[in-house]
Every structure is written in C-alpha cells, then in structure tokens.
Amino acid sequence: MAYPSLGSPDAYDYRVQSGSKLPWFLLVLVLGGVGYGGYLGWKERSRLMAEASAATVAAAKAEALRKQAEEKLAALEAEKSEAVAARDALAKSVEAKSSELAELKGTYNQLQEKMKEEIAHGDIQLTQSGGKLRVGLVDKILFDSGEASISKRGESVLARVGGVLASIEDRQIQVSGHTDTTPISDKLKGQFPTNWELSAARATNVVRFLSEKASVPAKRLVASGYGEFDPIASNKNPHGRARNRRIEILLTPSLTLKAIDKSKLAASSKAEAKRAR
To answer: What residues does each domain of the chain span?
Structure first.
C-alpha cells in the first residue's frame, strides 16, 4: 500500500481522518468499562445487602431462641424449686406423722401396762386407729349404780389413767359419757331428768378429776354427754346394756398450732430466700 507524502494534501486528509476515529473508539471502550464496572458493583452491593438482611433475620431468630431458652430455663428452675419445697414439706409431714404415731403408740403401751388388770377383766378397752386413741371404761369401775359421783375405786382407776394423760402434749382429750336405754328411775329424776343429764354429769366429773387430781391440763379437756344415743352394743340384753354404760376418753390431735421458735422461723425464711435466688 502506498502512503501519501507528508507534504501533500492527501497526507493531511489522512491524518485528519485517522485522528478523528480513535478518540471515539476509546471513549466507547471507557464508557463500556465504566458501565460494566457499575453493573458489577451494583450486583455485588445487592448481594451484600441480601446477605446482611439474611444475617439480621438469623440474628433475630437466634435472639428469639435465646429468650425462649431463658424462659424455659427459668420455668424449669421454678418447677425445681417447687418440687424441692414440696419434697421438703412432705418429708417434714412424714417425719411429724411418724413422731406423732410413735408418741401415740407409747401412750397406748403405757396405758396397757398400767391398766392391765382392768383390761384383762374386760372393764377397760384400748383401741388405736387413724391417729386416735380411745379408752373405754365401763361405768361400774368408776361410779355406783345411778350415781354421777366418782367412787373410790373409780378415783384409783382415773389416777392411773391421768398419770399417763398428763404427760401427753398436743392432744385434745375428749371425755364422753354414755348410758343404755333404761329410763332414769323416779328416785333420780329430780337430779337427772334424762340419760343425757346423767351422762353429761359423769363426763364432767371425770374431766374435773383429771384436771384437779391428776394434773391433766384443763385446756386440753372436753366433756360431753351422749346419753343413750351412741351405743356400741345391743340394748336388748344385760351384757349389751352393760357395755353401753361407759365413759370414753378419746385422744385426738390438737387443733391448736404450736408456737414457732423465732430463730427457727428466721433460719427457715433465709433458706427459702436463698433458694429463690
């Protein structure tokens, strides 16, 4: 190919034509590169924003799971504390009940030993069940027929019974009088109009003797008269009527709460507060 000489007009036209095309070509390349770079930057930015959004969602889920775990842990701790408290309360209850039954058994054994002669003759019956101790005494060993005053023999019997009862704590002692269905004789009606009065008078005199002569605390004694309305045998024969004429001494748990030692109460409160933390 022949190129025009430098001084000729054709050479000038060539230079002009060649120089006018190159800058535009470079500009297009530059703009294309900038556009492609912008596209890549936008794409990368979108990817980063999507990742950041996903990370935010994941963090929120993780925080929610953490809070749920903390709540479950707190609930488990509360349940554990309740279970421990329930276990301790049950253990204390069992211990108290065991101690109470052991004490009652000891009282039963003492009465059985002191009253073995009367028990052997059937004049006294001892029964123990459901945390209660019942002492049944037929009327003839305590009273003369139709009388409410305690006989000399009755005083001896009640003195031995009272010696055991006086040492018992936290027990209510109910003394109840009972009769058979035989009506009050005309001779005694002025003093005891019905069997109720006779049974109540006998129970009251036993309570007074136990309190005044046997040192049983009066606040733990109760007297009641059932008359003929709480029989333990048939009133149709002499043997049954003899069994129904009786005094019953019933030992039951006291309804009065024990006074709590202040130091023990304070120690218990501190222990509960420590467990709650």
So the answer is: 8-100, 115-253
State yes or no: pLDDT of 170 exceeds 80.
Answer: yes
- SS3 call for 188: coil
Task: Find how far residue 134's CA is from the centre of its chain.
Answer: 29
C-alpha count within 13 angstroms, C-beta hemisphere, residue 51: 6
Q: Which residue has the higher pLDDT, 42 or 99?
A: 42
**63-77, 141-155, 160-174, 238-252: least confidently modelled range:** 63-77
User: Which residues is 134 bridged to in the sheet?
Assistant: 127, 250
Q: 3-state DSSP helix/strand/coil percent for the chain, to nearest 5?
A: 60, 15, 25
pTM value? 0.63
Among 3.40.50.1820, 3.30.1330.60, 3.30.43.10, 2.40.128.260, what is the CATH number of 115-253? 3.30.1330.60
**Does the pLDDT value for residue 157 go beyond 90?**
yes
Of residues 242 and 98, more confidently modeled: 242
Give the length of the chain.
277
40/38 Cα distance (integer angstroms): 5
Sheet holding 246-253, edge to edge: 124-129, 132-138, 246-253, 171-178, 221-227
